[in-house]
Amino acid sequence: MISNNSLSGLLRALFVCLSLSTIASGQDQLKSSQLTLTPCQVGGVEGQARCGRYEVFENRESKKGRKISLKIVVLPARGAEHTALEV
Fold first, then answer.
1. What Rg do the C-alpha atoms of the chain give, in angstroms?
2. What's this model's pTM, rounded to 2 decimal places?
3. What is the 3-state secondary structure (H, E, C) of 16-82?
4. What does each C-alpha distance from 24 to 7, 16, 21 come to in angstroms?
5. Is residue 9 within a helix (H) or strand (E), and if so which, with residue range?
6. 61-75 as b/e, with b when 16 or more CB fall inside 10 Å?
7. What domain count does the chain have?
8. Residues 22-80: pLDDT tens digits?
9. What is the residue range of 70's domain?
10. Residue 82 lies in a domain
């Protein structure tokens, strides 16, 4: 059985992965706009994270119409050895 804390951590990690994959799939939009990250605290995560919002079209194919705001969270590395993630 998975504890509530473990499930919460897994859901946070999934959210970050999905957010990053959305950004990666829309790199043409990223080049023309800017993502500003500011220091923030995320419950259950040690260290300071960086948070921001990124707006995308609800329908990416048409590139017009309503926009939605994606919450972006960049978590600190947990290991001694780490490399930058290219997105």
1. 15
2. 0.49
3. HHHHHHHHHHCHHHHHHCCCCCEEECCCCCCCCEEEEEEEEECCCCCCCCCEEEEEEEECCCCCCCC
4. 25, 12, 5
5. helix 4-25
6. eeeeeeeeebebbbe
7. 1
8. 555 554 444 545 789 999 999 988 888 999 999 999 998 998 899 999 999 998 877 77
9. 4-74
10. no
